[in-house]
Amino acid sequence: MKLKYKFEIQEVAGLNVAIAVGPGSEHFNAIINLNNTGKDFFELLMQGKEREEIIAEMQQRYEVTPGVLEEELDKFVAQLQEKGVMA
After folding, report:
1. Cα separation of 54 and 40, whole Å?
2. Count H helices, E strands: the chain?
3. Where does residue 42 rank: exposed (0-12), middle (13-18), buried (19+ CB within 10 A)?
4. pLDDT (tens digit, 9 = 90+) per residue, 58-78?
C-alpha cells in the first residue's frame, strides 16, 4: 500500500483535504476530501504503514472490530486507486 505522490493534509474551510505537492502535483492536481477517519487512514498511508499496521493503529484510536476497519480501509484504498494515487 503505497501512495504514488507526496501529499500534505490541510484544513480548508473546516474540511480536511489532501493535496499533492512537489513533482506529483503535475500529475495529480485534484483535492481529496477527507472525513476524520479518512484523514487518519491517509496520514498512516503517508507514513508508509502497511495494511496490518494501519488496522492495528486504527483499532487503538476507534472502538470498532478489526473486520469493520478492514472493510473501511479496503473501500478507502479502492477509492484512492480509482483516483490513480495508489501505486
Report:
1. 9
2. 3, 3
3. buried
4. 999 999 999 999 999 999 999
The answer to whether 73 touches 55, Cβ cutoff 8 Å, is: yes
Strand residues in the chain grouped as ranges (E): 6-12, 15-21, 31-34
Does residue 16 surpass a pLDDT of 90? yes
Cβ-based neighbour number of residue 3 at 10 Å: 18
Question: Helix (H, G, I), strand (E, B), or coil: what is residue 23?
Answer: helix
pLDDT of residue 26 exceeding 90: no
Domain spans of the chain? 6-83
6-12 and 31-34 as β-strands: parallel, antiparallel, unpaired?
A: unpaired
Model pTM?
0.92
